[in-house]
Amino acid sequence: MARSKMRWEIEVLKAIYMDDYEEVEVKGAWSKTADRSFKLTLRAFSDQDSLALLSVRLTATYPKTSPLLDVSGVEIFHERTQKRIRNIVANRPKQLLGEVMIHAIASEIQEALEDAVSARQQGTLPSLEDERASAEEVAAALAQEAEEAEARRLREAQEEEDRVLKQMLDDEVSRREKRKPTKAPVVKTDDDTVSFDQPAVVTDGNDSVQFTSVTLTSPLKTGRDEQLYLGRPQTDRPLRSLVAVKRSVVQKGREDIMQIESFLEAVRKIRHVGVLGLLAYRVDRLDAEKSQVTLCSEYADRGTLHDLLDMSQIRPSNARRFTINLLEALDYLHNHGVVHGSLSCDAIFLESKPSMSARLGKLGQWKLHLEASVPSPKWRAPEGENDAITGRRKTDIWQLGIVIAQMFLGLHIIDDYQSPEVMLGRLDLLESFEDLLRKAFTLDPKRRASAFDLLPAEFLRTNAEVLDVVSMQPTHDRRRPSSSMISAKRRSRHNSSNVAEPISRYAMDFTEMGRLGKGGFGEVVKARNKLDGGIYAVKRVKQSPQLLDQVLSEVMLLNRLNHPYVVRYFSTWVEDDFSGGIVEDTTTTTDETTDDATEETTSDGPRMDFGFSSAGGLDF
């Protein structure tokens, strides 16, 4: 019955409105629906240009249910006319429910349009052009109000951000003030100056100045057994450089104190851009059980990495740069027989000059058994703590892995997950970033990578995000490789500009003159550089992508060698081997050959093939 009424009314509307009736196709979820949709162009009786467009959709249960109506084109009319028409569309379907109603509603809209035309002709309403102009003015006013509101919103957001930052700074200052004891200790005049037995050197601008005494200017941190002061070296001329002086009370026997002094002497000789240098130290016996250790070190003006991460997340580019700084510093320490022992975000200091950089500090704190930031038990290194240098080196790598995870994922990462393995299993990390962390968190310390092994990691050579945003598969459905089985699947490598090179750099910059030798891992050719005319030995090594990190480790080691009796190294780059479809690592690693060698070996001359099988890498 309802469908027959619907069809009858539609046929009537077609006959009445003729060309002003327009059928609209309706598609459901399965391309079949009983709904009918059409549009009616409703015109005023005395002015055919005054019109409105009524969009109608009749549901399968019409007229028992109200139709879906929408009217457009009434914006050019007076506000009173717009309100009347919209009231008709909103209220009349409810009043006529159960009856066919479209023609009645359309007629009432036409009457409203006719009344508007009549009022306009009689002068009681503005003309159509005036209404359009008024509508444009209203629209312009609304747009201006929207712009002003947006500008006001941005200004308020900036003020709110400034307020929050100021509040954070005030809270930090208040928190540090609360750490100070209620009753400040009275510093005697003779305690304002600390003297050291060893002469120390501090850099002031471009000059190196020697000193043996430091004037304590202000306390930075005070505790029961530890005080940290800001000091200024005493010299014959005023200095701008500042130093940090820490006084710690330890309970150690005579033999332990002697070991501590030996260790501090070794740390004092360490000089590296990534290490906050220990300038001087002294150990004073207080009584039979207690001793006071005074350490004078370089001062970092940006606080610790923990303070920075506690306030905000750092950008991935800065985190990568800090990671490389720490790896290079840790590799330098380990090569000089020194371990850190208590590496954490609290032991990493930030310096702003000449540019923001991260430096390792608090060296030897594990020897003094001072209070340190200790993670939860499952985040500690599985080998535990021991005094052996070799074991401590591997523990440094594990602790550095925690620092790297916190730099990229936040300080809370060790609280959100029970262990590194749980974190790696649940987070959808980028493959190269996960590979870096798995090398640092290898359970077997003998198989754990060294700082030098982590330096050529793929993740540190790219600008990719930490989380794998490409994958849409749920995290709990993905199977992760274990720490002993790391996937060999790699992404394609690019050059330093992150753009794949369609043309070989070797072919563009060098002219090959002959082969000098060949091994099981590649060949060495003699080539002339087209720009400077020099003759070089070029080692061409073909490697699969998953072994590129190993090759780059040897490249970094080769770059560090500088000796008259070691073949000079120049450059390394990566190219795609278009003939074989695998990555080709091309290395220019030797000094220019002599003129005699040039005359003896030509492209047409005899080739000297090495008779032994190469063990791999970049051996010449």
TrEMBL record:
Keywords: ATP-binding, Kinase, Nucleotide-binding, Transferase. Residues 149-175 have a biased composition (Basic and acidic residues). GO terms for cellular component: cytosol; nucleus. InterPro entries: CC_SR_Kinase, Kinase-like_dom_sf, Prot_kinase_dom, Protein_kinase_ATP_BS, RWD_dom, UBQ-conjugating_enzyme/RWD. Transmembrane segments: none annotated. GO terms for biological process: negative regulation of cytoplasmic translational initiation in response to stress; positive regulation of metabolic process. Residues 592-602 have a biased composition (Acidic residues). ATP binds at residue 539. Residues 214-460, 510-620 form the Protein kinase domain. Residues 8-116 form the RWD domain. Residues 149-190, 473-498, 584-620 are annotated as: Disordered. One of its GO terms (molecular function) is ATP binding. PANTHER family: EIF-2-ALPHA KINASE GCN2, EUKARYOTIC TRANSLATION INITIATION FACTOR 2-ALPHA KINASE EIF2-ALPHA KINASE -RELATED. This is Protein kinase domain-containing protein.
